[in-house]
Amino acid sequence: MAIQKVKKTEDIISKRQLWRDRVIEEAKEWIGTPHRHYEIKKGLGCDCGLFIIGVYANLGLIKEERPKFYPEDWAMHKPVGEMFESIVQKYCIEICKDEVKPGDLILYKFGKCLSHSSLAMEDDMIIHSEKPMGVTISNRFTNTWHKRERKYYTYKDE
Fold this sequence. Notes:
The protein has helices spanning 2-29, 48-58, 74-77, 83-91, 143-146; strands spanning 40-41, 45-46, 92-95, 105-110, 113-120, 125-130, 134-139, 149-155. By secondary structure, it is α+β, with helices and mostly antiparallel strands. It is 35% helix and 26% strand. The strands form two sheets. A six-stranded antiparallel beta sheet has the order 3-8-4-5-6-7. Strands 1-2 form a two-stranded antiparallel sheet. The chain has one domain: endopeptidase domain like (from Nostoc punctiforme) (endopeptidase fold (from Nostoc punctiforme)), CATH 3.90.1720. The radius of gyration is 16 Å and the shape is globular. A hairpin with a 3-residue loop joins strand 1 and strand 2 (45-46). It has five helices and eight strands.
């Protein structure tokens, strides 16, 4: 019995590492995709939230879905609810900051609500669609990003 339990735990860890590796590989393929509001096409354009959805959807981990249309500056004028977080919560579970691993999501507060997202990578780096650069890799612990981190999620792979 103990051997079977260890094997099952090893299989779960291996499965998690596999999707994490695939998420990072797919996300890197989006590098250079221009930042385009409310788009979700690798190589053509995406915003920060739809980039995350595009990566996970291209791997078949989630279905591709968008929130209702929102103006580009929606987060600066009024809180319209946590649009992306409601999609994230369908497929992910919230984790603590110290549990973040490559492939996990980090949500940031700009304006009046959670309004930016990235994928954690190795070595304190993040990959995200940043205006005006598009999909790029940044250091997670710069003042621009680190002080605005608010929530952390990992994919429900069970």
